């Protein structure tokens, strides 16, 4: 791991409060932040007609990760899997599967996704929902356009297969299952987990999961399917995408092909029951090191706010304002020069980065009943702000969901690091009593989490990877 920049005086690094998406999702990129990907954080966007060669450095990751384009909504169609196998001389911490298959869940629009994005950004309104979801590029047999091209996974009866599942969908969290087959989760976000035996999974945008399935049912055809989970009042694509698990042989497809029974779209209990099961493997061969002696505490509220539009000139809300996501009531503004360049060149660039300019608040600017009735402004500040940490600091970051705007479950992600999810809960975080219930024995090591609606999530990590990295929420609003 890198210990510091090639710099005679600086040993810190910064985290930008960006709401943008990311590339090489979950790769730590030790000592190589210049190829991390987020536009105007670690690099400027790649101009049309040019090229950029990225260097990807792996360290402790093992399992399934993914990459995607970063700028605007180009990630909707430009993405793919990253598979890291066990090192030579080692093996999986479970019996080696007979075969494996990457399963990518994605969004499908009849329109140009960049035009959908630009329309929403211009108006300040909610983004139009997708027209379908896909499994490996196909909406599935429930859609007429895909009845003959539905993705099929051939399996041999009695054998076990590893499914590398990636949620590349723009906004929706998804339930996924296979009719009449149980699933065993053995990894997520490039790290192994204790086995979770389940009938379904719930996977958030940006997450990956390694899942075992054994072909132990009568030789036939079975649908694998994914449908959305949504606990908000915002519009969402309420569609189901399917693929077919097909046993090898001469059997004919039954009519109808059985579908898995997935939880309802607003079944928060089913979502919570699954997400709270994750534990690190924490074995002698896959040990973990949960940070204990915290030196930096950060409390970060997560909201969907309003951004004021002069003369009520936006159509995003009835009052003529625009929607805007925020962290600690700060909504990210893309600078003209990327923050990493401003840092490494010792440049003072107003509103971008200044050495020792710690201008992103480490706690909410106003304390209120975060998950109750809102009695504070619903408008957010805007700017390019950073948190600066010293190398080696031990950080606890608590995400606090709020009831501002449209409360909902939020996917959260941190670049440059994996982290331990040590606790989650509903309501307002209590820094006196809630830490007593933390899991400091075998918390999952991940890079993306679900922040529960009107709840909180606590993560811990050590600042040992110098660079400029973004805290992101996988969400459409800017």
UniProtKB/TrEMBL annotation:
Signal peptide: none annotated. It is found in: Secreted, Extracellular space, Apoplast. Keywords: Apoplast, Copper, Glycoprotein, Lignin degradation, Metal-binding, Oxidoreductase, Repeat, Secreted. GO terms for biological process: lignin catabolic process. InterPro entries: Cu-oxidase-like_N, Cu-oxidase_2nd, Cu-oxidase_C, Cu-oxidase_fam, Cupredoxin, CuRO_2_LCC, Laccase. It catalyses: 4 hydroquinone + O2 = 4 benzosemiquinone + 2 H2O. Residues 25-87, 100-249, 360-469 form the Plastocyanin-like domain. Binds 4 Cu cations per monomer. The keyword Metal-binding applies. It is an enzyme of class 1 (oxidoreductase). Its main location: secreted. Transmembrane segments: none annotated. It holds the Pfam family Cu-oxidase_3. Its EC number is 1.10.3.2. GO terms for molecular function: copper ion binding; hydroquinone:oxygen oxidoreductase activity. Its cofactor is Cu cation. GO terms for cellular component: apoplast. NCBIfam families: laccase. This is Laccase. It comes from Acer negundo.
């Amino acid at each position: 791991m890198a210990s510091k920049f090639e710099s005679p005086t600086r040993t810190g690094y910064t985290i930008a409060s960006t709401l943008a998406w990311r590339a090489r999702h979950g790769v730590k990129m030790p000592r190589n932040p210049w190829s991390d990907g987020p536009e105007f954080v670690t690099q400027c966007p790649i101009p049309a007609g040019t090229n950029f060669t990225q260097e990807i450095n792996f360290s402790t990751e093992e399992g399934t990760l993914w990459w995607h384009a970063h700028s605007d909504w180009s990630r909707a169609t430009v993405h793919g899997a990253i598979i890291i196998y066990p090192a030579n001389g080692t093996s999986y911490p479970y019996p080696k599967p007979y075969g494996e298959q990457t399963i990518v869940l994605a969004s499908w629009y009849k329109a140009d996704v960049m035009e959908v994005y630009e329309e929403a950004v211009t108006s300040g309104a909610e983004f139009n929902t997708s027209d379908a979801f896909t499994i490996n590029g196909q909406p599935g047999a429930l859609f007429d356009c895909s009845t003959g091209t539905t993705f099929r996974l051939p399996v041999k009866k009695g054998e076990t297969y590893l499914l590398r599942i990636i949620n590349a969908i723009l906004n929706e969290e998804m339930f996924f299952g296979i009719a009449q087959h149980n699933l065993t989760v053995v990894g997520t976000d490039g790290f192994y987990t204790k086995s979770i035996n389940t009938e379904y999974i719930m996977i958030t945008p940006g997450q990956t999961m390694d899942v075992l399935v054994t072909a132990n049912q009568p030789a036939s055809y079975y649908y694998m399917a994914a449908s959305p989970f949504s606990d908000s009042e915002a519009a969402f694509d309420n569609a189901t995408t399917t693929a077919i698990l097909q046993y090898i042989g001469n059997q004919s497809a039954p009519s109808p092909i059985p579908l898995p029974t997935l939880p309802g779209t607003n079944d928060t209990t089913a979502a919570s029951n699954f997400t709270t099961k994750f534990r690190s493997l924490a074995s002698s061969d896959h040990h973990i090191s949960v940070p204990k002696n915290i030196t930096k505490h950060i409390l970060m509220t997560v909201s969907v706010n309003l951004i004021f539009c002069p003369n009520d000139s936006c159509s995003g809300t009835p009052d003529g304002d625009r929607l805007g996501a925020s962290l600690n009531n700060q909504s990210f503004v893309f600078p003209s020069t990327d923050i990493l360049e401003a840092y490494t060149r010792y440049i003072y660039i107003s509103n971008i980065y200044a050495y020792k300019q710690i201008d992103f608040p480490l706690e909410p600017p106003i304390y209120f009943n975060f998950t109750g009735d809102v009695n504070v402004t619903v408008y957010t500040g805007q700017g390019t702000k950073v948190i600066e940490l010293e190398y080696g600091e031990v950080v606890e970051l608590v995400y606090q969901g709020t009831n501002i705007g449209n409360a909902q479950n939020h996917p959260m992600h941190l670049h440059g690091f994996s982290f331990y999810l040590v606790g989650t809960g509903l309501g307002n975080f209590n820094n006196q009593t809630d830490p007593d219930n933390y899991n400091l024995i075998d918390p999952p090591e991940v890079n993306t989490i679900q922040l529960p609606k009107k709840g909180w999530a606590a993560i811990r990590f050590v600042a040992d990877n110098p660079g400029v990295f973004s805290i992101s929420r996988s969400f459409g609003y800017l």
